[in-house]
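== Item description ==
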Amino acid sequence: MSPAPAVGQAGLWNIANVLTMVRLLLVPAFVLLMAAQGGHDPAWRSFAWAAFTIAMITDLFDGELARRYDLVTDFGKIADPIADKAIMGAALICLSALDDLPWWVTIVILAREIGITLMRFWVIRHGVIPASRGGKLKTLAQGVAVGMYILTLTGPLATLRFWIMAAAVVLTVATGLDYVKQAIVLRRRGLAAEREQRVQ
């Protein structure tokens, strides 16, 4: 009787990881495009917007492909969230450095993203909090707002991007507070379960 075939493990060079690496490589390219010609040339800003948009699109597909086709790897688990935060962080910092976006907006968004990442590590042994609808809406609002700020818009579109960014900031804070609440509840339940096991 022949032994059952071993379950294959996804290799490093799969489509999901390649998309993640493309996103990481786009970060320095994006920064260079944003800084070209003093940072306010409409043509170079359009190229920067294209790089940012490609990065956002790859973010939509790499995680879904990894889960659907069993391509989840340790590299992907680490690199994917880093790539997400790197492109968004680079965009926010560039916009604030060019005086196109108030620094407090950048600080609020980055503090939330970094804080929630640290929170995940804090509760990881007790469980995983799934992405909420509000969290996905927050990501969409951030992506659209930042993309509009990268472009040199005027008139009604400039006003529109202000309100989309305002909505993104509100969603960023609200979903961050909700995540903290869920993380605290999850940790308390996990610690209570551990105490019960020790008693038994």
Remarks:
- Confidence is low (pLDDT under 50) at residues 1-8.
- Residues 113 and 192 are 28 Å apart (CA to CA).
- The longest helix spans residues 156-199.
- The radius of gyration is 20 Å.
